[in-house]
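Review box. Two proteins, two foldings.
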Amino acid sequence: MLKLKTVLKRPGHPWVYSNELVSMPQFQGFCPLYDTKDRFVAHGWMNYRALIAFRIGSRDPQDIDHDALVRRSLERAIALRAGMQGSYRLVFGESDRLPGLVIDRYSYENSVVHVVQLHTYASELMLPIVREVLGEPMIVRRDIGVRELEGMAKKETEVFGELPKGPFFVMHDERELMAFESDLVSGQKTGFFLDQAAAIAQFGRLARKLPFEHVRVLDLCTHVGQWSAHLAKFLDRSITCIAVDSSASALEYAALNIERQLAPLRERGHQAELQCIQHDVMRLDELKIPPCDIVIIDPPSFIKSKKNIVTGLKGYEKVNALAVKKLSPQGLFATCSCSRHVSGDEFYALLGRAALPIAWIGQSMQARDHFVLSSFPESRYLKVAFGVRCDS
């Protein structure tokens, strides 16, 4: 019998740590959890190899059938996103009661591709039901570093079925579909950052109000050019996009995606230029770039675990200070952190310590398909701040 040592410190939270259990049986699988008085607490997944030893799937004592529980939770996740258009996150792990399972749904012209990430031992057990319900084509990725915390090795990506050719589609400004291409098989994370949809739309509406006839955009850690491509469509005027990333392969997709939005601008008589630069943003001071009217910095997570918090926070401070130096007076600034180990308060505090000459005018978070649970603060991981440069 798997039992708690004491009352859970965070009631409603889906994680139980190994030091909260009476003992650590050498077990991996689906089982019930009981309290100190042998009363039922939850059904979930035990993994003796992980610090998070038990992940809760249901608090209903009747949910003893693993496959039925997974199927019902998956069907609930699909129903909650009914009516969403384009590409979006279909399953967001613990927020959908499927701990460690992440599924993105990519919408193509005549097909849908599901990209499945298996972060936990629990998610490995869920995969047969996922494949049965969602079918093919499907990409299953086990190349995520967090698997090592579960005592699992990274593995090569599997592709089931034939992947469609051409671009997939995402929503632009919640009004129309927009085409993108990316490496969904081996690109960073799931190959595309669907979580930034709300932030980009909010920032794009601010950018649209800029008084400049020709706007210079510096897109740092551009990945596949998502921010710049959307901004080109929002601004609908002459524009110069400078896309910077450390990955040459990502920049190839960035050039394709941004150029797809610049071409119509040229057809309407606007000037539209693109520069793609492979460079480490931590050495941004080495790049000779004239001041830009818009600067976006969307770096990868600098804090993968709590032991990296101090150095990670310093990294965020440094990269933001470097980015702002490239921003022209009264220019727009957007900065992001996707680390769940940094709270919103900590993020804004580090921006204060960086002493940026910025007046903050807005903030955002992950898109609505990435649900946030009040009982699971870690589910609110993306922090985005918008500001205007205002030197004294």
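Next protein.
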Amino acid sequence: MSSAYGFGSIASVRKMKCYALAGLLLFFFRCEHSGEKQSNPAHVLGTNSNHLTLDNASFPVKGVVYVPFAPGYLPWQFEFDDQLPSILQDRINQDIDSIKALGVNTIRLWGAPKYCYKRIAQESDILILQTIWLDSEHEDFRSSEFLNSSKTVITDAISKIFSIMDPNDPVILAYLLGNELSRQSILSTNQAHPGSYAFAGEYIQTDSTLTATELTLAELADYLKQVVVSFTSVEPLVSYSNELRTFDILDTPFLDFRSYNVYSYAVDYYVKNHVPGSSSGTITQGFIETLKSKHPDMPLLITETGLSVSPLATHVGPPNYGYGGNTETEQAEGILQTIQDIETASPPIAGLIVHEFNDAWWKYDLEDSYTQDPADIEEWFGIVGFTGDLSNWQLSPRKAYTALRMHWNN
């Protein structure tokens, strides 16, 4: 959801390497950075029953997913580069200016180039919700191969961030460890490792009711916290982005807050026994309130929501819209409806991230990045599109961009 329901995502095309020495990597980083820890953070991050907090005040999240893009460049190919081609650097500068103008306080990143972090850090009123990619379709999340390769991904991602960021002020709101693990993989992992588990780590301790998949998330989240603390003395906030197709078999109340990707059309399709919302009456609000009621004393953040305007898809229309085939007006109205659902929900919801800022032409390979396929729903979720030829790209805001800018700046 896009990555949730698009059947094509960053996770489906990126490659991972497996290293069996992930534990030694953590030991190495702890030793290397033990003398560099900072103890005077610029801000204090935390949670209360309903929200993430910044300096002990509630911080209602309002943001967008952002993946820097230009034709001929695949996002995962330049995320560790120190120098970027001018077209990408210019693109990032213009994009961040446009995102800031929306009135957001949060940008959700996946694997972004170093320059993107530097550019966001210049904005004093925007924080980063950092996604750490996990192989969502691995057949066994408890295998040593998956655990070790995932720990390497975590170490590499955190090391990149702290090679750029000031440890006293890294502008990271929280980390999302994984996104939408596949239902088939969750079930195969739990079947291969039946029973209930407890976890006792350095930062995370649980009861003995975890499934095997939940045990893995607890272990990796604890590892992530250890790696971050090897650079700074501040323990980070960590969550996992769950989704509608797996909410009945996976939950993570042992993390700092709960996160879900929620799309109105998916609620209509995947959720049985619809319940109307307490204020708006929509089934989307009803589902979100049901999620919150399971753990009312911890924040629930909606980490993706949006609508695709792909032209060659079946048109459904309101009130729940469709997976693709929406008009620009419907995209704007549908996203605003979900925002209203969240803003008027009871109990309060921690906020939301709109998927996504710009269209994503790059979903499959380099050749795909040069054109926008009218039949590929995943390439049309942006609240901005692009106009002009490949040598002279310009942002083209859609009605949803204008609507969000008016709403969030009101």
